[in-house]
Request: fold
Amino acid sequence: MPQAREILLQGTIIYGDDFTPLDGYISIRDGIIREFGNEKVDADYVGIVSPRFFNAHVHIGDSAFKDPPFLPLSELVGPGGLKAKKLSQMPRAVLKEGMRRSLNLMAASGTCAFADFREGGADGVAMLQEALIGLPLIARILGRPGIGQMTGPDNCWGLGISSTRDHDPSVVRAAVAAARIRGQAVGIHAGEAGTDDINGAIALQPDFLVHMNRAEEKDLMETARLNCPVVICPRSNLVAGVGLPNVKRMLKNGITVAVGTDNVMLNSPDIFEEMHFISKALLHDDRQVFKMCTLNGAKIMGLDQRLGSIREGKEARVMVIDSSSDNIWGSIAPLSSIVRRAGRSDVMAIF
Reply:
């Protein structure tokens, strides 16, 4: 059997789990990073070589009705709210087309894996699986019980629960217990619109929490004690008017923080845009912001041994940023430029 052709990428390599910018090259064969070196090579691409992104919380299902009116969170996404009505009214083919377009956008903007909270029970999961066919994305789909059901679907990676205040506690407990028996991950929205659902969510000992922008110090300390990661979605919080997460306090408490773009109907599922906002408004630490959007997301999805950073032996889910683009030219700090200003138009190649 003939060997796959070697691919050589030269330039500034965002290398290792500490994301150190190093001048050199990487060699890729059979989809694996085989070698890092410092010498000059006859490269296929030259630029800033970066690991791809992990969108750790997204709702792809509302891609067919973007940019609704500004409404309180409960009226947007709560039970009986605008989103629920639109999902029930839209034809299946239209919903799937919206998903497909959002998936294309994620792939084009550097995302390689995502965690989607799926509405619609088993059919909602199947719809996303159909939309994914042929696309170079890893999906971690978290389903939820359909109407009148006590457990979530078994044809997906995990169970994704909206706020515990939205459901009968017995239904939530039954769904979580069933997910544990199946070996599924459990993710729960908490602390988005208030603090009243945080204790109930933490008591279920989920694999990760989403939002926690209203969390108080005692909540963050308990989350850290349980070694429970948190996925923040600050652009979504801003649109919904529910306040922004205290990322600095989360990190100071030792919480693993990852990043999601949340509802597509509110924001583009583009991690570049989320990084720009976080780095300028919430955390002036570019390396930490980058880690939140790469390796930390990979950890939450159980992919960090394979993906999330550039190291020999890991899968080559990388992209090349054009260091000569009008946007990036003149950069004195390549990692900071990726975090603060790079976008889809700067991406030369994706692997």
Remarks:
- The chain has a mean pLDDT of 96.
